[in-house]
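One example copied in:
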Amino acid sequence: QPHLVESGGGLVQPGGSLRLSCTASGFGLGYWVVGWFRQAPGQEREGVACIGVGGTSTNYEDSVKGRFTISRDAAKNTIYLQMNDLKPEDTAVYYCAADPFLNNLVYGLSQAEYKYWGQGAQVTVSA
């Protein structure tokens, strides 16, 4: 059974940085499209970033473009989300998700496209 685990969340001041990790077990993450999503209290879960097989294609939600970077480390079977210049509105539980059949990153920010999900990591941006 594919399993995803997020780590790296925490409390950071506005303008600070965090790097989230999503590590997979039970399957090779390098062959699947992977997305990062977030859900703030009282809000719907939204797609933040996604990365294609091979790691050269990415897609970002507009509010994080230029601040967040998604990347792969195939040797570690891990996907990263580097988050810079964090803002209070970035506060949320962040989830990674993967799907073996998704291949068009145009749909990569839609949670309906993903079958496997991690348990989430809390990111809090506050002074």
The chain is about 0% helix and 45% strand.
